[in-house]
């Protein structure tokens, strides 16, 4: 296996509504992941997960920014091209 693997997650042209559905789901899944991770840390260790606590507001801010993009695209009758790759590299534990 290569030290760097690339996977295509999203590639194509979409209506504003299609793009909104796709990206909203991606962001909400990540937010829920971090919320669950933080809840688990509080239950198990009695303290917040520092990464999750930092990442949740960052993701929510990006989601707000994304909504602004969708509003602009709808107002200007634009379709959206989305492209997203996942890069996986191997590191030592």
UniProtKB/TrEMBL annotation:
Origin: domain of life: Bacteria
What protein name is recorded for this chain?
Answer: Uncharacterized protein
């Amino acid at each position: 296996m290569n030290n760097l693997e690339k996977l295509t997650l999203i590639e194509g042209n979409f209506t504003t509504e299609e793009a909104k559905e796709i990206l909203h789901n991606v962001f909400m899944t990540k937010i829920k992941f971090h919320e669950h991770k933080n809840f688990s840390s509080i239950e198990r260790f009695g303290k917040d997960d520092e990464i999750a606590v930092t990442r949740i507001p960052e993701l929510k801010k990006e989601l707000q920014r994304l909504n602004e993009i969708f509003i602009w695209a709808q107002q200007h009758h634009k379709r959206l091209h989305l492209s997203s790759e996942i890069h996986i590299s191997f590191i030592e534990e």
